[in-house]
Amino acid sequence: MASLNDPRYGFCRDCMAAQRAEGRRCHVCGSPRLLRHPELCRLSIAHVDCDAFYAAVEKRDNPELRDKPVIIGGGKRGVVSTACYVARIHGVKSAMPMFKALEACPNAVVIPPDMEKYVRVGREIRQMMRDLTPMVEPLSIDEAFLDLAGTERLHHDPPARVMAKFSNRVEREIGLSVSVGLSYCKFLAKIASDFDKPRGFSIIGEAEAKDFLADKPVTMIWGVGKAFAATLEKDGIRMIGQLQTMELGPLMAAYGTMGQRLFRLSRGLDTRRVEPNGESKSVSAETTFNEDIGTRDELVAILRSLSEKVSRRLKAADIAGRTVVLKLKTRDFKLRTRNRQLADPTQLADRIFRTGCSLLEKEIDGTRFRLIGIGVSDLSDDGRADPKDLVDVQATKRAVAEGAIDKLRGKFGNNAVETGYTFGKIRTPPKASPEELE
Ligand code: TTP
Ligand code: MG
Ligand code: MG
């Protein structure tokens, strides 16, 4: 039998039995879900993402839905939040207009989102992660990074086995399935978790990283959205392998700091650390436009919706931030960041938005922008956030109103209530963005 130190070591994800180097099924339980990899016992950065999260929670709570195509969504904008894997076979995708989804899959059961429930389940899963290590960095309601380096003595198991047991525990105790990516860095752990969904477990080792990336599209790189991919395409770059042949100097000359990111990530070089809650530097959301925008009204509308996204993430993680950061990127990729420190930490969309607006005001000078982002830094837990403001009575009223809106959204979904700023102004819903690369 292969030992833990043997590069041929493998194990069964179902019964955890150690495996011989050969054989497609577990010699103990017969399961085909075997994990083998030469770096299996060396890798310690994991990314976990729940499978079809909202839909899976609804299926769990109503077994009649189990084999049916289920779509979560609706609300005013009428888009799909998520679809279960049965509905995905018919072509239903997140962010698709509901009428299109129902054309593709007329038998689908449509369920309005129950955000309060999903936040609660997300927290339960996060707690299970924290049972493994305090080094848990949530990225969204259904996903997080874990750094398991140095936990082997505690768990008497290498990270790969700890994560396989974790995914079994989530299935058993929460009733949901997750997919796990395991690697030596965040960039590849996240790619890996998406590679073998649902119920997946993928491993990308250091030795294979460059080859693995070579034939993948540049959009796989963190921060390369549609607009930037189009710019690269114009320069004849579509595949990560092409970036691997380019030097740092020319890449930076052409694309600024983004060039450095392309250089490093294309080669699988990513030294960002997993930052547990409270230690993470900021929570932010940004969007790159299909066409550059210079008008105040359009920017403000998008800023409002991004502020709400940031606020939702802060509230879900029970944290608040004291410094509001506005980020703009001009059409020629020049970055402008502007900060303002508040008197006390906030997690309210309204305060983030108003501060962002006043920072934005000074930047409206006819320049056209390709990206806007808003975030907060100086994070702390939410105990001291947004104290009742004795001076600004209006602000208190707005905070109360926001609490009421949150409750409605908790009940009926994020799109149930739209404020005057976003209503009707946004053509495409802004995407959540990855955090900045160090
Ligand atoms: P994702 O993890 O992106 O998607 P998912 O969990 O539904 O499916 P997958 O198996 O591919 O991971 O998002 C988590 C939840 O966030 C998702 O269940 C619903 C919500 N969401 C939206 O509301 N709108 C969106 O456009 C996306 C992508 C997700
Ligand atoms: Mg998911
Ligand atoms: Mg996710």
UniProtKB/TrEMBL annotation:
<comment type="subunit">
    <text>Monomer.</text>
</comment>
<dbReference type="InterPro" id="IPR043128">
    <property type="entry name" value="Rev_trsase/Diguanyl_cyclase"/>
</dbReference>
<dbReference type="GO" id="GO:0000287">
    <property type="term" value="F:magnesium ion binding"/>
</dbReference>
<dbReference type="GO" id="GO:0005829">
    <property type="term" value="C:cytosol"/>
</dbReference>
<keyword id="KW-0239">DNA-directed DNA polymerase</keyword>
<dbReference type="InterPro" id="IPR017961">
    <property type="entry name" value="DNA_pol_Y-fam_little_finger"/>
</dbReference>
<keyword id="KW-0963">Cytoplasm</keyword>
<dbReference type="InterPro" id="IPR001126">
    <property type="entry name" value="UmuC"/>
</dbReference>
<dbReference type="Pfam" id="PF11799">
    <property type="entry name" value="IMS_C"/>
</dbReference>
<dbReference type="GO" id="GO:0006261">
    <property type="term" value="P:DNA-templated DNA replication"/>
</dbReference>
<dbReference type="GO" id="GO:0003887">
    <property type="term" value="F:DNA-directed DNA polymerase activity"/>
</dbReference>
<feature type="active site">
    <location>
        <position position="143"/>
    </location>
</feature>
<comment type="similarity">
    <text>Belongs to the DNA polymerase type-Y family.</text>
</comment>
<dbReference type="InterPro" id="IPR022880">
    <property type="entry name" value="DNApol_IV"/>
</dbReference>
<dbReference type="GO" id="GO:0009432">
    <property type="term" value="P:SOS response"/>
</dbReference>
<dbReference type="Pfam" id="PF21999">
    <property type="entry name" value="IMS_HHH_1"/>
</dbReference>
<keyword id="KW-0515">Mutator protein</keyword>
<keyword id="KW-0234">DNA repair</keyword>
<keyword id="KW-0479">Metal-binding</keyword>
<dbReference type="GO" id="GO:0003684">
    <property type="term" value="F:damaged DNA binding"/>
</dbReference>
<keyword id="KW-0548">Nucleotidyltransferase</keyword>
<feature type="binding site">
    <location>
        <position position="142"/>
    </location>
    <ligand>
        <name>Mg(2+)</name>
    </ligand>
</feature>
<feature type="domain" description="UmuC">
    <location>
        <begin position="45"/>
        <end position="225"/>
    </location>
</feature>
<keyword id="KW-0238">DNA-binding</keyword>
<feature type="binding site">
    <location>
        <position position="49"/>
    </location>
    <ligand>
        <name>Mg(2+)</name>
    </ligand>
</feature>
<comment type="function">
    <text>Poorly processive, error-prone DNA polymerase involved in untargeted mutagenesis. Copies undamaged DNA at stalled replication forks, which arise in vivo from mismatched or misaligned primer ends. These misaligned primers can be extended by PolIV. Exhibits no 3'-5' exonuclease (proofreading) activity. May be involved in translesional synthesis, in conjunction with the beta clamp from PolIII.</text>
</comment>
<keyword id="KW-0227">DNA damage</keyword>
<feature type="site" description="Substrate discrimination">
    <location>
        <position position="54"/>
    </location>
</feature>
<dbReference type="Pfam" id="PF00817">
    <property type="entry name" value="IMS"/>
</dbReference>
<keyword id="KW-0235">DNA replication</keyword>
<keyword id="KW-0460">Magnesium</keyword>
<protein>
    <recommendedName>
        <fullName>DNA polymerase IV</fullName>
        <ecNumber>2.7.7.7</ecNumber>
    </recommendedName>
</protein>
<dbReference type="GO" id="GO:0042276">
    <property type="term" value="P:error-prone translesion synthesis"/>
</dbReference>
<keyword id="KW-0808">Transferase</keyword>
<dbReference type="InterPro" id="IPR050116">
    <property type="entry name" value="DNA_polymerase-Y"/>
</dbReference>
<dbReference type="InterPro" id="IPR053848">
    <property type="entry name" value="IMS_HHH_1"/>
</dbReference>
<dbReference type="InterPro" id="IPR036775">
    <property type="entry name" value="DNA_pol_Y-fam_lit_finger_sf"/>
</dbReference>
<dbReference type="GO" id="GO:0006281">
    <property type="term" value="P:DNA repair"/>
</dbReference>
<dbReference type="InterPro" id="IPR043502">
    <property type="entry name" value="DNA/RNA_pol_sf"/>
</dbReference>
